[in-house]
Amino acid sequence: MKGLMAQLWLLLAVTSTNGQAGKLEFFNSSLPAPGRHYKFLFLLPTPIRSHTLTVAPLAVALANRGHEVYMLCETPDIYELPNVTCIYHDVVLDRPDFNSIGSLSSAMGHMMNITAAIGDNVNRIFSSPQIKSLYQKRKEFDFIVAEDMAWFAMYPILHEMPFAIFTTTVFNPCQSAHFGNPQNPAYVTGGVFHFPQPFSILDRFTNLFSTVIACSVYRWMTYSIRKEVNKHFSELPPVSEFERNASLHFVTVNHALDGPLPLLPNQVAVGGLVLRPLQPLPEDIRDFLAGEDPVIYVGFGITTIKNDSISADKEELLIAALSKLPYKVILKLAGQNPQKIGNILFHNDVPQQTILAHRNVKVFVSHGGLAGTQEAIYYGVPIIAIPAMWDHSKIASYLEQAGVAIALSWPTLTEADLLHSIEKVMQNPSYRKKMADMSLIYRDQPDTPLDRAVFWSEYMARHKGAPHLQSPARRLSWITLLHVDLMAITLLLICSTFWVVKYIVIAPTRNYRASLSIVKKKTS
């Protein structure tokens, strides 16, 4: 069993782009060859690279199975995915402005920022001749996969098409409800918080209202974006209707990280799809990791945090604290030239998964992003999480409660806090032991996330969106779904019965007894 789990994903054949150093490599699916080939379109025009790299393994695996796979790409195509044909758009897309760590600590600020960026991009996207042409030709494809943030801006292309929404962030109960699978806030977290199970009455109260607020903000987001889309496509139904019509929902969840979630057959868990074959280490990093000395790896994602996102004083604090550690440190910051100063090796870009897989790497200092967290869990590396946004905070909270991480805060971060947290994880073996246990759970699956994603993509193409798997609940109002009407009718029947008993049975009886009493008094 242990050997099976260790080789669960690594037994798959590997494909690469010409085998050149620095090019991305991906696993192949181990499923039998498909009976026929289909034409897939991936809508990934997002400037957030980590989201694209989460979905890219599926696109490459389908292409390697002989399917025609097209992807809406930025210009130039920085990914160069093997066997995937890029449809270049000539639009310079804005990424959400996450320029100041801590300034977007609230979910509302985060959502408003994303909504503004998507709204600006909508007008640019549908002014592009290439994308207008793609809209006209969309019915040439058998199935479309749209990344969660991209699909808001691209949903007109999904009109009257079978398609999947691929959620690359934390599980979204509001989106799940549109699929016909509302999550119960008595045990599923739906807002920006994570609570230990079972929820206390205060936890349930907080979770219920944070879920309602989060879903209200989500609805406001879709309404705001629809106003921009209507400038180009006034005849389209609302965004929520598109969401209800989605054939498939890829959710980036795993029991080890997210706990048990009740999912529909067309909600497919693909947590871990981001994992790729390990890339060779650059010579300077390989030499730095050599030997027996423990190493701390510090990396804050691909695009979430850049060197100008961290204020000068926080960057100085970070470097000052790390330089005082009795351990080697690899510090990845965008814009940094590779250089070694004292115990710190600075780097601009690194093969993160290969570093986390190295036996000498003992702690991962991260922003708590979903992709990096999944990688750390898979390779069993405890985390010091310094969240940048609300979803990072939710992940960090869960990891801390599970005993595999320590959560800190950028606004209140001090040198002493960081040093103490790293030393605590280094000196307390329970963090590594619990993360190793979580890693075993994460790896122990009957099939791989890639095979799962490939199977269901081909299944949807074969069955033209598989409407037989769509839940009838997606068309029910919340009044019907929660039986509010039945409870009202039941209450009315109870009240009516009480009235009948009181005024038709009891009242006449009382009157009869009263009249008998009067008669008796008169006769006596």
UniProtKB/TrEMBL annotation:
Membrane-crossing segments per the record: 476-501
Signal peptide region: 1-19
GO molecular function: UDP-glycosyltransferase activity
InterPro entries per UniProt: UDP-glycosyltransferase, UDP_glucos_trans
Keywords in alphabetical order: Glycosyltransferase, Membrane, Signal, Transferase, Transmembrane, Transmembrane helix
Domain of life: Eukaryota
Keyword Glycosyltransferase: yes
SUPFAM superfamilies the UniProt entry points to: UDP-Glycosyltransferase/glycogen phosphorylase (SSF53756)
Family: Belongs to the UDP-glycosyltransferase family.
Name of the protein in question: UDP-glycosyltransferase UGT5
Species of provenance: Hyalella azteca
Lineage: Eukaryota, Metazoa, Ecdysozoa, Arthropoda, Crustacea
Gene for this chain: LOC108673814
